[in-house]
Amino acid sequence: MDKIKDKNIVNDAIVKDISETIHTLKYGTVTIVVHNSKIVQIETTQKDRFDDVWLLEGGGGI
After folding, report:
1. Which residues lie below 8 Å from residue 38, measured CB to CB, with a gap of 6+?
2. Domain boundaries, the chain
3. What is the mean pLDDT of the chain?
4. Closest C-alpha to 18, from 34, 38, 32
5. Coil, strand or helix: which one is 17?
């Protein structure tokens, strides 16, 4: 058997944290940082979108 397949690299706490991060994020990115085959960090970049505010029909834009 392959040793890597036998190892549980991701524990339940990490999966829960990633899942919660994704569910609270409307727009943005989630980056998972790995060191020595282990997840060591989760980075989140949240973006706010204003597409609807700038519609020309609504008087927005230049």
Report:
1. 9
2. 3-58
3. 81
4. 32
5. helix
